[in-house]
TrEMBL record:
Cross-referenced SUPFAM superfamilies: Coiled-coil domain of nucleotide exchange factor GrpE (SSF58014), Head domain of nucleotide exchange factor GrpE (SSF51064)
Source species of the chain: Stutzerimonas nosocomialis
Keywords: Chaperone, Coiled coil, Cytoplasm, Stress response
Pfam families attached to this UniProt entry: GrpE
Name of protein: Protein GrpE
Subunit-level organization: Homodimer.
Gene Ontology annotations of biological process type: protein folding
Region of interest called Disordered, as start-end residue ranges on this chain: 1-21
Gene Ontology molecular-function annotations: adenyl-nucleotide exchange factor activity; protein homodimerization activity; protein-folding chaperone binding; unfolded protein binding
Length: 189
């Protein structure tokens, strides 16, 4: 009977050991679940951040597509602008026989340039400005006493920008300082 009493009424030590084991198991289980929860929250934040980045990149791509959708078309139209400008340069404004035709070409060119301007296509005509390798392409260098070295003397072909992005660089002649000639024998004496 004493054994039955021990089973029904376990000793204080026996009572403490199962509780200690259960408590340690619960603490370990709680720690494991908390770690899993922290990992899941971290992963959730990362996924949310990645989705936000994807959405932002997609919005930027759409914005760029809208801004620069005309890039190829506008680039193709530049040869038309160049041809009209060259035609005006080569024709004599004082020739009465071609005056009406010249006025028509001038109006057509103005209309084309105004239309391109409405779509943020801007001409770069850097005559007299300092050379900028980001917007200009140097075709030649020429000595000049009247221009600052490194400035644009002539523009062979205008450059163009579309929405702040270079579409075509301006082809230019850049000034350089005149070469110093060595003093002649007469000047030394």
């Amino acid at each position: 009977m004493a054994d039955e009493q021990n089973l029904d009424n376990p000793s204080p030590e026996a009572k403490e050991n199962p509780e200690v084991e259960v408590t340690e198991d619960l603490v370990a289980r709680i720690q494991s679940l908390e770690e899993q929860l922290a990992a899941a929250q971290d992963q959730s934040l990362r996924v949310a951040a990645e989705l936000q980045n994807i959405r932002r990149r997609a919005e930027q791509d759409v914005e760029k597509a809208h801004k620069f959708a005309l890039e190829k078309f506008a680039g193709d139209l530049l040869s038309v602008v160049d041809s009209l400008e060259r035609g005006l340069e080569l024709s004599n404004p004082d020739d009465e026989a071609i005056k009406p035709m010249r006025e028509g070409v001038e109006l057509t060119l103005k209309l084309l340039i105004d239309t391109l301007g409405r779509y943020q296509l801007v001409a770069l005509d850097p005559h007299g400005e300092p050379f900028n390798p980001e917007h200009h392409q140097a075709m030649a260098m020429e000595e000049s006493t009247h221009a600052e070295p490194g400035s644009v003397l002539k523009v062979f072909q205008k450059g163009y920008m579309l929405n702040g992005r270079l579409l075509r660089p301006a082809m230019v002649v850049v000034s350089k300082a005149p070469a110093q000639t060595p003093p002649s024998i007469d000047e030394k004496a």
